[in-house]
Amino acid sequence: MDKILITGGHVTPALAVIDTLRAEGDFEIIFVGRMHATEGSTALSAEYELVGAKSIRFLPITTGRLQRTLTWRTIPSLLKIPVGFWQAYRYCVREKPSLIVSFGGYIALPVAVAGWALGIPVITHEQTRTAGLTNRIIAGIAKRVCVTFDRTATQFPEAKTVVTGLPMRKELFSPPNTCPFAIKDTGRPVLYITGGSVGARSLNRLLYPVIAALTHTFTVIHQTGTGSLEEASRSRQLLPARIRSRYITDAFLDVKKLSWVLAHAGLVVGRAGANTTVECAALGKVAILVPLPWSAGGEQTVNAKWLEHNGGAKVLEQRGLSSENLLGEIERMWKHHESLERRAGLFAPSVPRDGAARLAREIVSLLATGV
Question: Strands of 190-194's sheet, edge to edge?
Answer without folding.
Answer: 247-250, 219-223, 190-194, 265-270, 287-289, 313-315
